[in-house]
Amino acid sequence: MSSFQASEGMFIMLRSPRLFIPPLVLLTLISLWYTTLHTHVSTFTARHFSAHQDSPQSQGSNHIQNSTLGFEKVFVLNLPERTDKFDAFALSSSLHSFNFDVVKGVDGSRILNKTLPTLDGLPAKEKARQHSLGAWRAHLNVATRMVYERISTAIVFEDDSDWDINLRAQLEQFAQGSRYITSSWSGSKDLRSKASGGDAYSPYGEDWDLLWLGHCGVDIHPSDSRQFIISNDATVPSPKRRVNYQDIPDLSGYSNSTRLVFRAGSGVCLFSYALSYRGAQKMLLTQSTLTKFRPIDIGIRHMCGEVDGFKCVAVFPQIIDSHKAAGHIDRDSDITDFDKDQFREKGYTNNIVRSTRLNWGPLLAGSMDQIEVQFPEDTPEIVGDVSMRPG
Prior knowledge:
The chain is α+β, with helices and mostly antiparallel strands and 391 residues long. Helix content is 35%, strand content 17%. It contains 9 helices and 15 strands. Strands 1, 2, 3, 5, 6, 7, 8, 9, 10 and 15 form a 10-stranded mixed β-sheet that branches. Strands 4-11-14 form a 3-stranded antiparallel β-sheet, with no helix packed on it. Strand 1 (73-78), helix 4 and strand 2 form a beta-alpha-beta unit. The radius of gyration is 26 Å and the shape is globular.
């Protein structure tokens, strides 16, 4: 007898006028009837959802809509004493419904010289040395954890990172570009350790080491000029509002609402990036055998551009950047010193049109008509829908 037949029969029995049932027994039967019916409906719903989730058209999108943005893990780097930055990141991530694990920032003054691959190239000033070493070690700790725990993919954020309120849509578009860029690369497609088992599928492609999502400048690899073009994108800042500190792709032949995905050959700043298991292994190897010390973002730049077989995919303009909060500007960085008397009246985030941090209030209230655009006078006018194509 099916569960639905059983529940229907029980209902007929309970409504019979000639059958006396003691109250306690009656309550027990009602409870059993409700549980049986609820189980049947839940089973149907679960099967229906699973069938939809497994369709080829929705697989990539569903992965990116999960609680880890399509990666196995989300990490945020945070010094324990910077509770303000932790609070802010926790609020922003909650508004986008993704979970994260904290990787503690490192006090560079506690790093012993004998643990370093080299002392050559370290800053001469002690404070600069400590800051550079602390950042280097914290990012290396992410790679170590991924290798130790056999984590297939992870996205890494610095704790002052900010992103557009449309982050997941941007990631879906980037994923299509990343799959295109990586599809023709030869070599191992295994993003995770063969010993760890599990599903190695990634919506971002299956042959990459690093995805550079948040930076302050990145350029196309000289050996691979292929591009994936995202047009009519309302989240792209106008050229006059783009802030970068190194060479960037030439977008003069495109509309001002165009974003590119490509193989990266250089870059600077690590506001956010993703590593594969294989990429984490290569990062550990390269950084632990340095003959001359480099700040971690310059080390990654070297790996993307000059280390044979290290495969980096980037997006420009960037989709994640560093937020500068209102208040005393010496709160901005734990690496760079600022004048403690300087004060910022209003916070901002470079390169982000609709900043999550600047829209906490409207997002919490669900008032999407109150969303603030950082530079409305310079935001490109969009005609038509977003379009994507290889270029």
